[in-house]
Design a protein that fits this description.
With about 230 residues, this protein is mostly helical. It has two domains: about 15-60 and about 195-230; about 70-195. Helices cover about 50% and strands about 0% of the residues. The chain contains twelve helices and no strands.
Length: about 230
Amino acid sequence: MKMEQDEIRKGPWTEQEDLILNNFVHLFGDRRWDFIAKVSGLNRTGKSCRLRWVNYLHPGLIRGKMTPQEERLVLELHAKWGNRWSRIARKLPGRTDNQIKNYWRTHMRKKAQQKKKAMSPSSSSSSNSHSSPSSSTGKVSFYDTGGPDMKKSGEFEDEKGYSMDDIWKDIDMSEENMIKPLTDNYSEEVCDIFCPPMASPSPENDYCLASLWKMAEESISCFEYGTSYLTG
DNA sequence: AACTCCCACAACCGCCACGAG
DNA sequence: ACTCGTGGCGGTTGTGGGAGT
């Protein structure tokens, strides 16, 4: 495939890029990322645009620390589903899979370090401490507590057969007293909260719409296609 | 005050699934 | 049925800021 005319931008997003992306998502919706990437003139990949929107610009996002309830929910759901971050995220309104993943990563690192300290390093063979039960299958992240062995196997509501690795077992046991079993309070209704209608363009967003359209027009030839969205 | 460590967050990469042609 | 393009997901890395020493 032919590369874009300009070099694809990488790295941190600027405020202006955010603004442009925001406007184009409002215009075209949050599905057609490759298209948005092209017409916006951002010189970003569609993937990058999507990620920026999902993880940062989405109006429903909650920023800041996880609440104890959320932490509990993450632990509970991870025990149930493993590293299915997007799935877990759907049960936490306003949280992204990236946020949860990051939280889990630091959380587990902390736990792993605590555990390491607790266990005398001299008493155990070091190789053993690093080899997960699934060592034969290849690399497993230290914070990957496994979950059901359902890699790309579709749904896995059935919890039978879910075996946690050593770390998770320890953590689970240590926290069992804290984590009250959850009922189905985190059912689908929670998810609905996180799906607000597309925010209406604010006045401040309008200021550059004209220029944005001009950019889009110059960028590709399918301008009319976009206008059909506006005019209905 | 300077330095180090840790945490939270942002972003990229690679792989896979799915739909369109 | 096959190929290709795109989006979604999970893994990983880089970085800035705050806390601790």
